[in-house]
Specification:
heterodimer, A: Rossmann fold, Helicase, Ruva Protein, domain 3, Zinc Finger, Delta Prime, domain 3, 4 domains, 10 strands, extended, B: Rossmann fold, 3 domains, 5-stranded parallel beta sheet, 5 strands
């Protein structure tokens, strides 16, 4: 006789025991107190958050015979006991995934007319209701709208968007939420205590995090670990089995990203994998940590974080050293890695690539340019930026130094950079720390980066901007020259202009505005005749080879949109 | 040597305890190909039915030997037939019928389904009821490359035993001690295996495999400086007939990953140990970013080939883009 798994043993029996779903249990309890019971409910939400459990408790409560309505379900009367023991005749639990055909629904319709045998109500719980076929849903509609007075439907599903609108509109809908970390953690500790298992606090933290908001997942994990450890579970054991990392590895890896230390990070990753860490788990934990950094920016007291205090202290330091834009880029790299891991041959490769990419953040195409530009600005370098930057610049070529650096020197710093600005700051109001006067040259050099960022937000705008280029800088206004009226008009549309100004300010780390002008004519060479173009094309070695070896013929030569700043 | 499985101590402990007390009704072993999933499943089947005294499996008793030889009446192994592309519904139905009978001579009736992800949707669904509530005295053992390849409903019915690659040093040690491989070849095969002991053991016994690999790598490397027409020609040659392009790309990927590691000063983890000199030399004039970009290109091509794009075209794109 196999042992009953812990999550079944610990299934809640009263509304008060359902954890983390107060918004639902309160409503349902009140409905029972006031005897306002609807005929159809829809419970939706992620796995393991209490849908089926709540449905069963509600089924008990509506039929409970306790005198005081406040006490229902009492878990003492016959009705409650029969449900708890799984022998209630009037609680009909249907697995929608297996009974998903029209015939099953017809069968249900035939039986629903009969009165309940022992309770006040007949309760139909249809679990996994999203698996019903379209025909079955339609066959159910009439019954769901006006069932006999003694019948109550509770539909439960994880995928509410698969239900037809006609079903949704006939039910009272309750959305179950992920159970908060703290509640899961406390509950697991309670179960462990009652099961006489010795579990290290760190291991409990790990299980609760691993549960990802699903109480059932957390308890299953605890169950497996108690069985494995024979009642004793240490953090090291738990980490070994989950393929999880020693806690400081993740923060060390982020440290390497902040410091742009490629070698340190690659060695760390390979060591961790050699020690038995699971690459997926690794990426998951890195992402969770990065998310923590993001949250810390929003609320520096770290109230949303589920990590130990010393880790949070470390995170605060790192979060100050990693500007929001860069943090987002790093998060994106690792999110991509997570999706590539699924079918990668060498599982740690996406991880390594994401890491390397992150250390190179802000593009090498921009990495050298600004440094040079700042170190030797052709125009007024009255700001003290130059010495500070040179001193602080790491040996590797990097993008502009963190905004904090020039601020410390105190010359132009109007606003202190740390504590970090709120998350949305870079998008709406760029960090207003000036390097001093900016010249045109860095803008031209980084124009490509600006375009690249624009492209991620609005592809059309990028295509339009390719038709122009920065031609002058007046105070804080970048003048864009366009050869054609059409491009200029498009770029001047308020939305486009605003987006461009935002991006430009972000990339140049300086609030900039944009003005568009019509340049006299195409700044490049005069148009060639088609024949000349072909001759010119033949000079290209690749084309020559293709024509020579593969017998190709040049049919036509077309201009590409100028994507480089004019070399004039 | 009671358990044939090497490494994976935690899994062995878990299963040994389960076999001694109360096993769950279904286990799912996941991990990359040739990591030892089937070996572990067979070990567990022996442990469940071993009749020897002392530690189980003993490897000596009639039951252990019969299972090892594949002729135990209570242990069945289901796998895709060689001429089919998937596990057929009929195969699973047959084993389901067997599972309804009481064990013939052992304590447990064990069914091992190798590579459950090769079962088609119908077969997997038809197996769900058995997987949820098999007859008493039945233990089902499933193996799959990744849990994601299986239906959620299949996954949630099994206790999962995720097997991760072994540490390279451990593989190396096994190759040296059990197969008497010299340390250079052992190191090479261990690294190439990526911690998959089964692969490493095959490779060390197959002289030609490593040699062919080296030759292919040389060809690929030679094509880089020769320019586009040579690269296109090579792509054509490598995709002619039914040659496995994936193998080529995997090899190429491992080379460039090594370059990345060398460039990132993490040379301790490189795979192509025998070409260390060349790696150091090549990494010298390449940029870290370029290597990273190129790895993404190769990775993309690999995924595209999974999605059935023209293999020759994909390989051409990869080769032409090689940074010089």
């Amino acid at each position: 006789m196999p042992a009953v798994s812990l999550y079944r043993k610990w299934r809640p029996k009263t509304f008060a025991d359902v954890l983390g779903q107060d918004h639902i249990t309160t409503t349902l309890t009140n409905a029972i107190h006031q005897n306002r019971i609807a005929h159809a409910y829809l419970f939706t939400g992620p796995r393991g958050t209490g849908k089926t459990t709540t449905a069963r408790i509600f089924a008990k409560a509506v039929s409970c015979t306790a005198d005081d309505e406040r006490e229902r379900p009492c878990n003492r009367c016959d009705v409650c006991l029969s449900v708890n023991e799984g022998r209630a005749l009037d609680l009909i639990e249907i697995d929608g995934a297996s009974n998903n055909s029209v015939d099953n629904v017809r069968d249900l319709r035939e039986r629903i007319g009969y009165s309940p045998s022992q309770s006040r109500y007949k309760v139909y719980i249809i679990d996994e209701v999203h698996m019903l076929s379209a025909g079955a849903f339609n066959a159910l509609l009439k019954t769901l709208e006006e069932p006999p007075p003694h019948a109550i439907f509770i539909l439960a599903t994880t995928e509410v968007d698969k239900l037809p609108a006609t079903v949704l509109s006939r039910c009272q809908r309750f959305d179950f939420r992920f159970v908060p970390f703290r509640i899961i953690r406390e509950h697991l500790a309670q179960i462990a205590k009652d099961e006489n298992a010795q579990i290290e606090a760190g291991a409990l933290d790990l299980f609760a995090r691993q549960a990802g908001g699903s109480l059932r997942d957390g308890i299953s994990l605890l169950d497996q670990m108690i069985a494995y450890g024979n009642g004793q579970v240490t953090l090291a054991q738990a980490q070994a089995i989950l393929g999880s990392l020693a806690s400081q590895s993740v923060s060390a890896l982020i440290g390497f990203i902040v410091a742009r230390d490629v070698s340190g990070g690659l060695n760390l990753i390979n060591q961790a994998i050699a020690d038995g860490a699971d690459p997926r788990q690794f990426v998951r934990e890195v992402l969770e940590y990065l998310r923590g950094l993001l949250l810390l920016r929003a609320s520096p007291d770290g109230q949303w974080l589920t990590l130990p205090a010393e880790t949070i202290a470390e995170m605060k330091v790192q979060s100050a050293a990693l500007p929001a834009v860069e943090l987002l880029a790093v998060i994106k790299n690792f999110t991509d890695a997570a999706s590539q891991l699924r079918n990668a041959l060498q599982p740690q490769l996406p991880l390594e690539l994401a890491f390397v990419e992150s250390t190179l953040r802000n593009g090498s195409n921009s990495a050298t340019a600004p440094e040079k530009a700042i170190a030797a600005p052709p125009v007024a370098a009255k700001a003290p930026a130059t010495p500070v930057v040179e001193k602080e610049a790491p040996p590797r070529p990097v993008s502009p130094p963190p905004a904090a650096a020039p601020a410390k020197s105190g010359a132009t710093a109007a606003k202190p950079a740390p504590p970090p600005p709120p998350v949305e700051a870079p998008a709406v109001a760029p960090v207003a720390v000036a390097f001093g006067a900016l010249s045109l040259e860095p803008v031209q050099k980084q124009w490509k980066d600006v375009l690249a960022v624009v492209k991620t937000r609005n592809r059309n705008l990028e295509a339009i901007l390719k038709g122009g280029s920065p031609v002058a800088l007046e105070e804080n206004v970048v003048v864009l020259g366009f050869p054609y009226q059409f491009y200029k008009d498009k770029a001047e549309e308020p939305k486009s202009k605003q987006l461009l100004e935002e991006v430009l300010s972000e990339v140049m780390r300086k609030p900039l505005r944009v003005r568009c002008e019509l340049t006299a004519s195409e700044p490049k060479r005069a148009p060639l005749r088609p024949k000349d173009k072909k001759e010119l094309a033949m000079e290209d070695p690749v084309i020559k080879e293709i024509v020579g070896k593969y017998g190709a013929r040049i049919a036509d030569v077309q201009d590409e949109a100028p994507d480089e700043p004019p070399d004039s | 040597m009671p358990w044939n499985t090497i490494g994976h101590e935690w899994a062995v402990n878990l299963l040994a305890r389960a076999a001694a007390t109360q096993p769950s009704h279904a286990y799912l072993f996941t991990g990359p190909a040739q990591i030892g999933k089937l070996t572990l499943a067979l070990d567990f089947a022996r442990a469940l039915n071993c009749v020897g005294p002392g530690e189980r499996p003993c490897g000596q008793c009639r039951s252990c030997q019969a299972i090892a030889a594949g002729r135990h009446p209570d242990v069945s192994l289901v796998r895709r037939l060689p001429d089919k592309s998937e596990i057929a519904v009929k195969q699973l139905r047959d084993v389901q019928n067997e599972l309804n009978l009481r064990p013939y001579e052992g304590r447990w009736r064990v069914a091992i389904i190798e590579n459950m992800h090769e079962a088609n949707l119908n077969a997997a669904n038809a197996f769900l009821k058995t997987l949820e509530e098999p007859a008493p005295q039945v233990v089902l053992l499933l193996t799959a490359n990744t849990p994601e390849a299986l239906l959620l409903t299949v996954r949630s019915r099994c206790q999962s035993v995720p097997m991760r690659p072994l540490p390279i040093t451990q593989v190396e040690e096994v190759l040296r001690e059990r197969f008497g491989a010299d340390s250079e070849r052992a190191a090479m095969a261990a690294r190439l295996s990526g911690g998959r002991l089964g692969w490493a053991m095959e490779a060390i016994q197959d002289e030609e495999r490593l040699a062919a690999r080296r030759e292919l790598l040389q060809t690929l490397l030679d094509s880089v400086p020769q320019g586009r027409s040579a690269q296109i020609e090579l792509a054509g040659r490598l995709t002619r007939g039914d040659r496995d392009v994936r193998g080529v790309l995997d090899l190429w990927l491992s080379w460039w990953r090594d370059l990345l590691l060398v460039k990132g000063q993490c040379a301790g983890a490189i795979v192509n140990l025998d070409e260390r000199e060349r790696l150091l030399r090549d990494a010298g004039h390449l940029e870290l970013r370029a290597i990273g970009r190129y790895l993404t290109i190769i990775e993309d091509a690999r995924q595209q080939i999974e999605q059935n794009v023209n293999a020759q075209l994909a390989l051409e794109v990869v080769l032409i883009n090689a940074p010089v």
